[in-house]
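Each letter names a residue; the fold follows as tokens. Both lines appear below:
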Amino acid sequence: MKKLLFILIAFLTFANGDAQILDPAKWTTNIEKKSETNYILTFNVVIENDWHLYSQFTPDGGPLPLEIIFKNQKGNFTLVGKAKESKTRTAFNDIFEVNETFFEKKGQIQQEITITNPKLTEIKVDFNYQVCKEVCINIEKNFTFAIPAASKTAETAPIATDLTSLDSAKVDTAVVNSDVNKEQTVTPEKVPVLDSKSDKQRGLWSIFFIAFLSGFAALLTPCVFPMIPMTVSFFTKQSKTKAKGIRNAIIYGIAIIFIYVVLGFLVTWIFGADALNALSTNVWFNIIFFVLLVTFAASFLGAFEIMLPNSWANKVDNQADRGGIIGILFMALALAIVSFSCTGPIVGTLLVEAASKGGIAPIVGMFGFSLALALPFMLFAMFPGWLNSLPKSGGWLNTVKVVLGFLELALAFKFLSNADLVLQLHFLEREVFLAIWIAIFGTLAFYLFGKITLPHDSPMSHISVGRLSFGLMVLAFTIYLIPGIWGAPLKLISGFPPPMTYSESPYGVGNSKGGSSTSAQILPEGAHLGPHDLIAFEDYEKGLAYAKSVNKPILLDFTGYACVNCRKMEDYVWSDPAILKILQDEVVLISLYVDDKRELPKSEQYVSKETGKEIVSVGNKWSDFQITRYKANAQPYYIVLDTEENMLSDKPESYNSDINAYKGWLREGIDRFEKAK
């Protein structure tokens, strides 16, 4: 039996061995009986290196999230909550300007169900999802789970999906896993999905450095800075020898680090390593932290002070008088409590950013913050003479606090923008966002120039050179933002404002078509203005007919609305003047979107002869067209054709950021067309 199965698998492998049909995600499934009516459906996936499979929690506006469809649910079973996922990674996508969530290498999805129809014999589930590397692939997979018989064996053992398990376990019913064009069987590996180590390390290092700089910023606030000489002098006087004073100061610094690291640990432990990671794209999470950051900003600007109860500080001070290591630990705790009105907003903002990264990022963030906070206390205790070099406390400390308040206020609107983008409310479009930032940073510039004063500012007769220099930098940044309202890309702050497509006027205020010469043209029937105002067709037959009428070659572009690298090619390669001129003048562009969800008329729906799948949407039609005719299923995918639909280039092209190479590939096909005329 095993030999027969091996021969069958080998035959299927070679029979479907076209290298252009990519399938980087291999699935296996099982079903486990939990009770008389409840079952757990498990989907395991092994993903090839460097590929990403997007989670069901990836927000709208980016790559396509995983969609799980229970086809025969009605009247047969109910879902117990939402499908649970194993560990994923969240990273910012600078093309779509959203946080995308995805699996790498391995993943697992589990869904518990309750059977309501005792006669039910099988459960049918469809997965629609996207995987990307240098190209993106939209895939539909169909799974059928056979309900195991109500026996002791069925209650204790999951139903396996790989062929060798079926043979050895002597199981009568199996789960069929059907692919786009073939069945796949892979033995599941019970290992949680792992993050890319290099990306994870880079993320943690960035959190550490941001936290470290935040710790130094906290030092320069009126709650913390004056405490450096006071606290160091206290330790020096309390110690009978210089060596003991240094030792106590080092212990004090370590105690400060310990307190803040414990805070980071508690955030991770209470909320879970990935709970806030998943929440980072949640609408309510972003709205709550918008309100929180606005509150922090108001506190820093002088509206009120966020303070812990005085009784807490008094109790901690009493414990600090005990002396020894315990007393030093309570002294560090007293510092944290007394300085909370200044450090609290910074720590809160830092924890929000760190927690959105998931894992141990909150612990790493608190370590970086507390290290910067503790270092001066240790160093000045070791070298007391350095205390004389410290600048005197004064109004400049409140200036630092106010500047931090303005920065918190600007950051708050990024959280509000995230919520608006997810809901697609268009309340905070790009122009409005930029106008708010211009107002915030413009007001900050006036404040630094001394034209505006706030409640806790000290009177001043002049401004320092340092304050003037910083004010000029803020003013220059404000002026830099202004052209963004008229369509300037503002690459310096890419990722903070909403994308240019999410605006009242995508080409800039007062410029409906960006001044392109094509804007005044009468478009051919069935055409529209695509990227860079290129005339493009989204229907193959109409584009082909137009190409014949003007006797030009065709650039066939298999693409997707949620294809990251398709957008990169359009933004960075097609925008090159030499490439753009070719696309404008020498070819007819036909862009076929394989993820177009519009339903085909009933008369045009069919079952694919190649894959056996039902073709019900426009995207299904173009995806099947690509697979059937070109034996490929990845996007972007480019082909130069003549008007008789023959390929003009030696091979198709996919993602290629080399502008000269892409230009050479285009010229090869176009020149062959010209010679054949």
